[in-house]
Amino acid sequence: MELSCLKQAVPLFITEISPPKFRGGLNICFQLLITVGILVANCVNYFTSNIKNYGWRISLGGAAVPAVILLVGSFAIVETPTSLIERGKKEKGLKTLKRIRGVDDVQKEFEEMVRATEVANQIKHPFRELMKKPSIPPMICGTIIHVFQQFTGINVVMFYAPVLFQTMGFGSSASLLSAVITGTVNSLSTVIAIFTVDKAGRKKLLVFGALICMVAQVIKYYEQKLSTTLD
């Protein structure tokens, strides 16, 4: 539950404090840190797997390190300017925006935030707005993207990679090493997305990623079909 809350709150926080031209890349940095975390966890598991009796304790206890960093860091996080403006604290919101941007000339951006907040506050029943005709296409699109992302099985592969590789016949060490390789590819792919999303656009990246996924699935299908025929 805590992880789900973080996955909702952190992208929103990044969106509200980041400059518009870097917003896409900075948002993907959140995903990058998740992939790096998975990679680090796989590396720790790989190296501690050879430690008898208490290797699993090191692996399990290591998860406390990022948790402590997150806890301590959360006390240093400032409120976003948009959140402050929405709650009527405009002066504090302006001060925070200047602090985040590192300059005093932020009046134009601040006024845009105030206008956007005023427009948002005029919507009394946001869930009813989702049911109106103009809102239905983006709502359906945003929903099915996440649904089909889960249907690809990527979460299962990332979180249960060692177990999956063992069911394929890999040994214990080999399955952990394969999980490290998978995590490395995942992290590198995320880095590419960071530097291209604000230039190429989100739609092009989505289409390109979907095509790669489709090609991989087709190749896997025919590989299994060929393997069954040879058997």
TrEMBL record:
The keyword Nucleus does not apply. GO terms for cellular component: membrane. It is a multi-pass membrane protein. It is found in: Membrane. It comes from the Eukaryota. The chain crosses the membrane at residues 28-48, 54-78, 139-161, 173-197, 204-222. One of its GO terms (molecular function) is carbohydrate transmembrane transporter activity. This is Major facilitator superfamily (MFS) profile domain-containing protein.
